[in-house]
Amino acid sequence: MKITPGEVEPEKFSGVSSAAENENRNRRMVKTVYKALLRGVETEKLGKLVGTELEWWYHGPPQCQHMMKMLTGESTQKGFKFRPRRIRAVGDRVIVEGWEGVGEYWVHVWRVKDGIIAQLREYFNTLLTVVLRVSEDGDEARLWRSTPWARVQGSLPDLVLAI
After folding, report:
1. Which terminus of the chain has a smaller tally of CB atoms within 10 A, N or C?
2. CB-CB contact of 157 with 127 (8 Å)
3. How far apart are CA 17 and CA 100, in angstroms?
4. Distance set, CA 44 to CA 29, 91, 147 (Å)
């Protein structure tokens, strides 16, 4: 890009990141959480990424609350391993999907605020469609949907998350 005299590229000099840069940073942050968990709950690394007041919301069978048990140290990765199969960052949210065989399908929607993970919405054995509310009239745009493979693997609840 050629810069004429007196013209400044705002992203390089103002310290303001583009939306794509923020999404990439959020995506890398969430990927680091899964890597730390696979290595065996690296609490020091997780403590730098996840806020102390993490807002957590769960939908699924009570016995499948694996992520919260791992984040609180109540459980280790020996019983259940989260292996992300698909990750997508949308604004301040990162959507992660994974599965292990039949009956173990999950979706996590992480929200990053001020460089810290502030919220986790966990859906276990639940299909999810994420939509962006475009107007107060109910107009919306679909941002993400559970993978088609999961949709044909039996009868699972199907929820919509509007952001």
Report:
1. N
2. yes
3. 36
4. 14, 26, 33
Residue type, 69: K
Query: Is residue 147 within 8 Å of 86, Cβ to Cβ?
Result: yes
The CA–CA distances, whole Å, from 33 to 15, 70, 85, 157 equal 26, 11, 14, 27
Other beta carbons within 10 angstroms of residue 98's beta carbon come to 19
Per-residue pLDDT of the chain (163 residues; tens, 9 = 90+): 343 344 434 444 444 568 899 999 999 999 999 998 888 756 677 878 898 889 999 999 998 898 988 888 787 656 788 999 999 999 999 999 998 777 788 999 999 999 999 999 999 988 888 988 877 787 888 888 888 666 666 677 788 888 8
The pTM assigned to this predicted structure is 0.80
Q: What is the DSSP string of 98-137?
A: EE-STT-EEEEEEEEETTEEEEEEEEES-EEEEEEE-STT
Helical H runs in the chain?
Answer: 10-13, 19-38, 43-49, 66-71, 148-151
